[in-house]
Specification:
The structure holds two protein chains of two kinds.
Chain A: E1 20-29, E2 32-42, E3 47-51, H1 58-65, E4 73-78, E5 81-82, H2 88-93, E6 96-99, H3 111-115, H4 130-144, H5 159-172, E7 177-181, H6 189-204, E8 208-212, H7 216-222, E9 225-230, E10 233-239, H8 245-253, H9 263-280, E11 288-294, E12 299-305, E13 310-314, H10 321-328, E14 336-341, E15 344-345, H11 351-356, E16 359-362, H12 366-370, H13 377-382, E17 390-391, E18 394-395, H14 397-411, H15 427-438, E19 445-449, H16 457-472, E20 476-480, H17 484-490, E21 493-498, E22 501-507, H18 514-532
Parallel strand pairs in A: 3-8, 3-9, 6-7, 7-8, 13-20, 13-21, 16-19, 19-20
Antiparallel strand pairs in A: 1-2, 1-4, 4-5, 9-10, 11-12, 11-14, 14-15, 17-18, 21-22
Chain B: H1 17-27, H2 30-48, H3 55-80, H4 88-105, H5 110-133, H6 139-157, E1 163-164, H7 168-176, E2 178-179, E3 182-183, H8 184-202, H9 204-214, H10 216-221, H11 226-252, E4 254-255, H12 263-273, H13 285-304, H14 309-326
Antiparallel strand pairs in B: 1-4, 2-3
Helix pairs in contact in B: 1-2, 2-13, 3-8, 3-9, 3-11, 3-12, 3-13, 4-5, 4-6, 4-11, 5-6, 5-11, 7-11, 8-9, 9-11, 12-13, 13-14
Classes of the chains: A alpha/beta, B mainly alpha.
């Protein structure tokens, strides 16, 4: 593969012809002006971050770059020559690859087979040379330091590794322009590092990376420049080293946005509130108490969550965070140990039992587990409450519509009404619908798994508000997240999960910032590994 | 991507009803397309055959489609829940045998026949349901198996011989009677349609059916017992096949083990023509009614035009494919 031979040429950025240059790009769909003149360029060896709320035009811009849509006006140049991509194949041939949040892998095939899908080395009879394929893939994975087993079946891999496979697949083609769309939305700790490392390695070879993200911290870690889109225009392009988180948030949100708070300010103000709650909490009996809970994925979990408490679960993907939530919700059997809910030992065989006890779950994968995308808001919100909304078996639609109206209003869901189809909503609004499902009656224990994945900055703040209000109304909240800032913003206490065990629980006040928590996770991880060996 | 939406958070453009209807027709929005196809067929046959457009013929069509329509109501539940039932024709056959034998050997009264048929149908449905939901065998395979088994049992019980029924009340209630000039099979069809529509569109169970077919995982995560929902839908379909068996035997004055083979395809065609998604989560009883009427009108019209039965099969198949293709989004 051409990408394997390394010869990094370090020419200063400025002197190179941009890999891609967009100028004054416009695009409208029907009557809606999605792009109103966007200018953007990408230099070889550069990571250029693209920021903006949902609907700001990021998706449309990427679609024009990748040939899904064609522009109405403006200039698109690739390597200095004006061009138009009429199909994804044309853009791919020009060396541009997009890694979407939704992956294009064949789950039943191995990592190696997926990486070279359609480009397999063949002999004269057209049969695949398996050994050579494996060699090429192994060499590639080694060069990029990707912790992937080429023989593993993609469908068996955790999401983070599937995404890694997807990124590798793009890199293995002859790609000079890589577009990463929210690549870390489901990655944590170790994998994030590997991804960032991989991004650095590709850029060293002169590949340019357009990095779409909602996470500002990644912008600062990874990118040389950052462009902010708002309402279909580029607000500004900054050199990352010369800007601050505060000014980026201001540019994303725009002037006059209420509740504008930079992440750091929020952490500071919340630490105070967290202190108060943490000191008040111990007198209250825990609503959820797990004592040495063991099952196929958990190896002795001890955990207590009190009403009014927001308790975080931190740890790398595959550590057992999600499985703790699933066990409490009756999606996994308890093999031994005790699960206490509301003061009594309970046998929770399925979600029906859990819901009866006042437990609610906003699952990790909204599309697969949380929502029926082809159905309306009203139908989705009614899902867990069909029995309660029925009388003598007849569903009281009026009551359900009323309930949805209230939820839409309270949660500020941006939708015309309860009959809007959920699949048409943005990520943030979809997540609000998931929250709306569980409101009325208010759950006594709210389990949240990655509550803001794929949710833009504005809606994220609103969802945090919803979670905080739930806790203030005496709900116990248990939240698992890969986003450390999120845990610090929300939680009163945070438990570190390593290999199906909670190894440490700290109060919010003991942690200063994201780095402290990151450090703590890494430390717990390596301690656990030492004790094993 | 989780946000493919470009500018507004929601795409929904209200426009005037006139162009909207035309647009829906052109874009193939299923319900409109269906009314349109039905209207075209009726007009075409009325022009081509002098006897087609008459009350007598319409009642005839209604009576002929009664069996398919009744079973298709159950099949709508099954298909919306994301499953399929191929065993309905065999279930009808074995239920008919059960009714006739019960009346011959237990007691010759109409309700014994009815109960025997319904119970037999329900049992086949329950077997389908339990195997599908509890053992997680795809319903396509389960019902392909019971299609053979139910037919085999029907043939075995009398060693392939028909069983005569001799009960005038039974004939009157289910087969040959008239209520206000309308043949009872049509009355039963309407009754089942109405009850089915109420259950599907206005009950908690109906909600669970849609949710289960729309996204079974999300339904389970929301506390819906998806196994029970699927089982119930299959039991309902089996029971309705039992009712169809009663109507069939009441018209034939006998039960025969080898009847209506292949009818499951008409049932499925009616449901899918009616706009119900084969992948689950979407559909409506009114669509199923229209779907089964389209098939009925086709059968009837082609016979009236004197088209050979071989050619009828070809035309029917082509029209079903065309209708679904045009209405595909």
């Amino acid at each position: 593969m051409p990408t394997i031979e390394t010869s990094s040429t370090s020419v200063p950025l400025q002197s190179r012809v941009p890999l891609v240059r967009l100028e004054g790009i416009t695009k409208s769909f029907g009557g809606v002006q999605a792009l109103r003149g966007v200018s953007f360029d990408l230099l070889p060896g550069e990571v250029h971050a693209l920021l903006g709320e949902n609907g700001a035009g990021k998706s449309t811009l990427i679609k024009i770059l990748s040939g899904v849509n064609t522009r109405d006006g403006g200039v698109l140049e690739v390597a200095g020559e004006e061009t138009t991509f009429r199909s994804p194949a044309e853009s791919r041939n020009a060396g541009l690859a997009v890694v979407y949040q939704e992956l294009s892998l064949v789950p039943s095939m191995s990592v190696a087979a997926n990486l070279l899908l359609g480009r397999e080395p063949q002999n004269r009879l057209g049969l695949v040379k398996r050994r050579q394929l494996m060699r090429e893939v192994e060499a590639f994975l080694e060069t990029y330091n990707m912790p992937l087993n080429p023989k593993a079946i993609v469908g068996d891999l955790p999401f983070a590794y599937r995404q890694m496979t997807e990124i590798c697949k793009a890199l293995m083609g002859n790609v000079r322009i890589l577009v990463l769309d929210e690549p870390t939305s489901a990655l944590t700790g170790g994998e994030e590092e590997v991804l960032f490392d991989a991004v650095k390695r590709v850029t060293e070879r002169g590949v340019g990376v357009i990095y779409v993200t909602h996470r500002l911290s990644e912008v600062f870690r990874l990118s040389q420049r950052v462009t902010v889109l708002r309402d279909g225009s580029n607000v500004a392009t900054f050199a990352t080293s010369e800007t601050t988180m505060k000014s980026l948030v201001a540019a994303i949100v725009g002037p006059g946005h209420e509740g504008l708070r930079s992440a750091t300010e929020a952490v500071a103000s919340d630490a105070v509130a967290a202190d108060a709650a943490a000191t008040a909490a111990p007198q209250v009996e825990p609503f959820l108490k797990m004592s040495n809970v063991v099952n196929d994925r958990l190896r002795g979990v001890d955990l207590a969550v009190r009403p009014r408490e927001i308790h975080g679960l931190a740890g790398v993907v595959g550590s057992g965070r999600t499985e703790i939530l699933q066990t409490v919700f009756g999606l996994r059997k308890v093999a031994s140990g005790e699960l206490q809910i509301d003061g009594q030992a309970r046998k929770v065989r399925n979600p029906i039992d859990a819901i009866r006890l006042g437990v609610a779950l906003a699952p990790e994968d909204r599309h697969e587990q949380g929502l029926v995308l082809s159905h309306t808001i009203e139908r989705n919100m009614a899902l867990p409450r069909i029995g309660q909304l029925s009388r003598f078996g007849w569903f009281r639609r009026g009551a359900s519509v009323q309930r949805s109206h209230e939820a839409i209003k309270e949660l500020a869901v941006k939708a015309p009404g309860p009959s809007t189809v959920v699949g048409n909503l943005s990520g943030g609004n979809q997540q609000k619908v998931v929250f709306g499902k569980w409101r009325d009656p208010t759950p006594k224990l709210l389990l949240l798994d990655e509550p803001t994945v794929g949710v833009d900055v504005g809606a994220r703040e609103e969802i945090y508000g919803v979670i905080r209000r739930a806790a203030q109304g005496s709900t116990a909240v248990l939240v698992a997240s890969s986003d450390l800032v999120e845990l610090l913003l929300l939680c009163h206490r945070i438990s570190i999960v390593v290999d199906g065990r909670i190894v440490k629980t700290v109060s919010r006040a003991e942690l200063g910032n994201e780095e402290d928590l990151h450090h703590l996770i890494q430390e717990s991880q390596s301690l656990a590994q030492e004790s094993q060996s | 991507m989780s946000q493919t939406v470009t500018a507004p958070a929601v795409k929904e453009s209200p426009s005037s009803p006139g162009p909207k209807l035309a647009k829906a027709l052109l874009a193939g929005d299923r319900p409109y397309m269906l009314y349109f196809a039905f209207a075209v067929l009726v007009v075409a046959f009325s022009v081509m055959s002098p006897v087609f457009f008459s009350t007598a013929n319409f009642l005839n069509i209604g009576r002929q489609t009664a069996l398919v329509s009744i079973i298709a109501v159950g099949a709508t539940f099954v298909i919306i829940s994301g499953e399929i039932d191929l065993s309905v024709a065999s279930t009808l056959a074995v239920s008919g045998m059960s009714a006739a034998l019960a009346m011959q050997h237990l007691q010759n009264s109409w309700y014994v026949g009815l109960l025997a048929a319904l119970a037999t149908g329900a049992v086949v449905g329950l077997i389908n349901g339990v195997l599908t939901a509890r053992l997680a065998i795809p319903s396509f395979l389960v019902t392909l198996g019971t299609l053979g088994m139910a037919r085999g049992v029907a043939l075995l019980v009398t060693d392939t011989k028909p069983v005569i029924i001799n009960n005038d009340t039974y004939f009157a209630i289910f087969g040959e009677g008239l209520i206000a000039g309308i043949p009872v099979p049509i009355v039963w069809t309407v009754l089942v349609m109405i009850l089915g529509a109420l259950l599907l569109h206005f009950s908690g169970f109906g909600r669970r059916i849609y949710a289960t077919g729309g996204n079974a995982t999300a339904a389970r995560y929301s506390g819906i017992n998806t196994k029970r929902v699927k089982t119930t839908a299959l039991v309902l379909t089996g029971t309705l096949a039992g009712l169809a068996a009663v109507i069939f035997t009441a018209r034939a004055h006998a039960a025969r083990p080898d009847v209506v083979a292949g009818m499951e395809l008409d049932v499925i065609a009616a449901v899918i023509l009616g706009g119900t998604s084969l992948f689950g989560g979407r559909g409506a009883i009114v669509g199923t009614l229209l779907g089964s009427l389209i098939i009925g009108v086709l059968n009837n019209g082609l016979v009236l035009l004197g088209v050979s039965s071989s050619l009828q099969l070809v035309i029917k198949g082509a029209i079903i494919i065309a209708a679904v293709a045009f209405s595909k989004k």
